[in-house]
Amino acid sequence: QVQLVESGGGLVQAGGSLRLACAASERTLRNYVMGWFRQAPGKEREFVAGTTWSSGRTRYADSVKGRFTISRDHARNTVYLQMNSLKPEDTAVYSCAADPSGTFSSYSYWGQGTQVTVSS
Fold it and tell me: Lower Cβ count inside 10 Å, N or C end of the chain?
């Protein structure tokens, strides 16, 4: 069982930046894929960004390409989501997810989420 704990959410003005962090309890994430998802009020959860733990291969939703960057720190067992040029439509609860399959299509473990609010 992998425990994921997110941090770094908050309130920011449009055009600003935030960095989210996701600390994983599992020591061996070698074959894992790590992802960030978000869910806005009244909307379905959507994929934001993902990365493979070992190779660092990444994937992004079109809506965040060029603005968000996902990265990982092996020493800290942590995945980050750097969010720049934030827009009000980025407001959502952001959740970290992980899966040992190494594919971007499924995630078995989820964090509790952290709120990101972007004011106009």
Answer: N
